[in-house]
TrEMBL record:
Keywords: Membrane, Transmembrane, Transmembrane helix
Domain Tyrosine-protein phosphatase: 136-371, 404-711
Region feature (Disordered): 24-43
The organism of origin for this protein: Trichuris muris (Mouse whipworm)
UniProt name for this protein: Protein-tyrosine-phosphatase
All residue ranges annotated as the Tyrosine specific protein phosphatases domain in the record: 289-362, 626-702
A Pfam family reported for this protein in Swiss-Prot or TrEMBL: Y_phosphatase
Transmembrane regions listed in the UniProt entry: 50-67
InterPro entries named in the record: Prot-tyrosine_phosphatase-like (IPR029021), Protein-Tyr_Phosphatase (IPR050348), PTP_cat (IPR000242), Tyr_Pase_AS (IPR016130), Tyr_Pase_cat (IPR003595), Tyr_Pase_dom (IPR000387)
Gene Ontology MF terms: protein tyrosine phosphatase activity
Lineage: Eukaryota, Metazoa, Ecdysozoa, Nematoda, Enoplea
Length: 731
């Protein structure tokens, strides 16, 4: 066996270590040189970093696309599953009225269920031919809404006009009568107007329902196809006999005539025109239900086997919504059931696109639920008088209180709450200090905008005030709070900009720090860019009256000092003054020698109650409040420049309390004047539409009922609009 030379082995190991160390040193030197070389070449390093960053971005984008696409696919699949489940949950038949409201409330928790119904309706809708519609495209307002051939209205053809038999109109069945309705498009041309009246005459129609404005969004939606007095359309003569205008609709009585066999035949026609339904919106539910109730009253007076003509702009969505509500309320009246899904299927099988979107479909359910939940009908004057007898005994008063409590409960349940987004203007930082309560601000679509305070503040258009609809006119009232010290000029801007000739202040509070005076007793005073001059001042036991002239002055003007006549009169003197004031106010304005360059002026009566302390929910004297109501109504009719067509401002300390009572009682007075009946519940409901805080306590709603009865049972002189003289307490 060979011997290992340990010395030689040691030398070999040492030599290997030396070479390895040398190689390592050389490698390190090479790396350092390459690094220094790369450092001396920044463009290459930059390109390398750019490449790495691009690669990382592409990788990240791919990962995001993959994950998001996968999530989207999963979401789509999940959505389709939910839609299919919703489509399988459509009602299988009519729903009993006793459980309809609960059914709707439960379904509204899952909006997908409504979507499933309308998806199923479109899926099962039958397809029919529209060949005649395609052959007469010039007679159609919209190419996607044509009548089906099987149920189109066929007019008697005219000589030498082969297409005169065609009109874009469809017969639609009700639950109880075939061809109960004719749905058609709006009249937009003169030839279409002649065809429309031919259809009215040939169908023997007695009721026409119009659901579109004449103008909407600066566009002609429908020609005014009825005359102001009398006109002839083709061989049909149309005469307007009567027209009653309300806040949301107008009802006209027409006479139509035509010569047949040498004899002029005349018929009567009811024309119901809903004027507050915008193209892409939904109307106030209570207003549409009231509109439908009046139509139903007319139906009972007419021949029941002739069709009712219904039209909107395109003969589509709005007509379908109305018919679904109308037909189901008929069904509820006859059989105590409601079948929205079943009747909407009938509609879609009868006309193209007669239901346009999900919001319209949900609105049908909401309207029917409200009709079922609060089936509160107007009271005739006889019924109102019968209620007075219920105040004689404790038991009957308790029964009335129970009725009022239930109605007030419905009132609070059916008033939709305003969202913060609805009232964005009032919540803006620069406007928060203009509100007495940041939780009571007006919605932007229902507040009066100011324009004369330009440059005075960041948002010079804002004041905490809200429009309230009356019985006869939209925006008939403006409800606002007592102005703060720095918003008094905004208050007078409101009066000036919106031509308000009447202001009713329902609070008499002497705390000047909290409620600063915005009206003086005599002379002139400047409020921002306005000068207010008191022309006359009267004081009564229940109120004071300042008749003032509001003048807008130029920025460099200095208001002069001029004392106004100060006198105190009784009510008979006030009546005499109002008769003569209209003739002398113009002279006062012409002969006024003040050093103010009057750009424009307003005459306004500021009526302030004296019998309603701030700490009381109801006034100290109901008779005194009635006198205030009469005074305000009298001024609105007799003052110059027709102030009854201008909004009336109503003020309380917080813009909530008391205002609802005053506005609602005036609505009820107008209703009795025109219709000889009253609907207290819906008067209070319409008052709360733009300011849900009105009638913030049940006691106010109860007092409104008491005030109405007191007004008409103790004030028969109302019908002559005369004030009874009272003894004036001179201050």
């Amino acid at each position: 066996m060979a011997q290992v030379n340990l010395v030689r082995r040691h030398d070999l190991l040492a030599n290997c270590s030396t070479h390895a160390l040398s190689d390592l040193t050389n490698d390190t030197r090479d790396r350092k040189q390459r690094f220094q070389h790369s450092s001396s070449s920044p463009s290459k390093a930059k390109r390398r970093r750019s490449f790495l960053a691009s690669f990382a971005g592409l990788l990240n984008g791919f990962l995001l696309f993959f994950t998001s696409n996968r999530a989207t696919n999963v979401g789509h699949r999940w959505g389709r599953v939910q839609e299919e489940k919703a489509m399988g949950a459509v009602p299988q038949g009519p729903i009993e009225m006793s459980r309809f409201v609960a059914f709707v409330n439960e379904r509204k928790k899952k909006r997908m269920l409504f979507k499933g119904e309308i998806m199923m309706l479109k899926k099962v809708a039958e397809s029919h031919k529209s060949e005649y519609g395609l052959l007469n495209l010039k007679k159609n307002n919209y190419p996607d809404i044509l009548p089906y051939d099987f149920n189109r209205v066929i007019l008697h053809p005219l000589p030498h006009d082969p297409s005169s038999h065609y009109i874009n109109a469809s017969y639609i069945d009700s639950f109880f009568q075939p061809k109960a309705f004719i749905v058609t498009q709006a009249v937009k041309t003169k030839p279409a107007c002649v065809d429309f009246w031919r259809m009215v005459w040939e169908s023997k129609c007695e009721i026409v329902v119009m659901l579109t404005k004449v103008f909407d969004f600066m566009k002609v939606m429908c020609l005014q196809y009825w005359p102001l007095t009398e006109l002839q359309y083709g061989d049909v003569t149309v005469q307007t006999v009567d027209a009653k205008t309300f806040a949301y609709f107008t009802i006209r009585q027409l006479k139509i005539s035509r010569v047949e066999n040498g004899v002029r035949v005349m018929r009567h026609l009811h024309h119901f025109h809903f004027t507050e339904w915008e193209v892409n919106g939904l109307p106030y539910v209570s207003a549409l239900l009231d509109f439908r109730r009046r139509i139903q009253d007319a139906v009972h007076e007419t021949t029941r086997n002739v069709p009712m003509i219904v039209h909107c702009s395109n003969g589509g969505g709005r007509s379908g919504v109305f018919l679904a509500i109308h037909a189901n309320l008929d069904l509820a009246e006859e059989e105590n059931v409601i079948d929205v899904y079943g009747y909407c299927r009938t509609l879609l099988n009868a006309r193209q696109n007669i239901l346009e979107n999900l919001d319209q479909y949900i609105y049908i359910y909401d309207a029917l639920a409200e009709a079922v939940q609060c089936d509160i009908n107007p009271l005739t004057l006889d019924e109102l008088r019968q209620r007075t007898s219920m105040y004689t005994t404790k038991q009957s008063r308790q029964a009335l209180d129970a009725i009022y409590s239930q109605e007030y409960k419905f009132l609070t349940q059916l008033t939709p709450a305003l969202r913060i987004g609805d009232c964005a203007g009032g919540h803006r930082l620069e406007n928060r200090g203009k509100n007495r309560d940041v939780m009571v601000v007006p919605p932007d679509n229902s507040r009066p905008y100011l324009n004369t305070l330009h440059g005075e503040s960041k948002d010079y258009t804002y004041i905490n005030a809200v429009y309230v609809d009356g019985f006869k006119r939209k925006n008939e009232w403006i409800v606002t709070e007592w102005p703060k010290q720095h918003t008094i000029d905004s208050f007078w801007a409101l009066v000036f900009d919106h031509n308000c000739h009447t202001v009713v202040n329902l609070t008499n509070d002497e705390n000047l720090k909290v409620y600063p005076r915005f009206i003086h007793s005599r002379g002139r005073q400047a409020y921002g860019p306005f000068v207010v001059e008191v022309l006359s001042y009267q004081q009564y036991p229940y109120a004071t009256s300042h008749i003032v002239k509001v003048v807008k002055k130029k920025i460099f003007d200095i208001p002069g000092k001029k004392k106004a006549k100060h006198n105190e009169t009784n009510e008979r003197q006030l009546t005499d003054q109002l008769d003569s004031l209209a003739s002398i106010l113009s002279e006062l304005m012409v002969n006024n020698k003040a050093s103010i360059h009057e750009v424009d002026a307003r005459i306004c009566n500021v009526i302030s109650v004296r019998i309603w302390p701030a700490q009381h929910r109801v006034p100290l004297s109901t008779s005194g409040l009635i006198d205030v109501i009469k005074m305000a109504r009298l001024w609105r009719k007799r003052a110059p420049d027709r102030p009854d067509t201008k909004p009336t401002v109503v003020i309380s300390h917080n813009g909530v309390s008391r205002c609802g009572i005053f506005v609602a009682i005036n609505i009820l007075i107008d209703q009795i004047d025109i219709e000889q009946r009253v609907d207290v519940f819906h008067a209070a409901k319409i008052v709360r539409l733009n300011r849900p805080q009105l009638f913030d306590h049940r006691e106010e709603y109860k007092y409104l009922n008491d005030l109405l009865i007191h007004y008409y049972m103790t004030s028969p002189e109302y019908h002559t609009e005369k004030l009874e003289p009272v003894v004036s307490n001179h201050a």
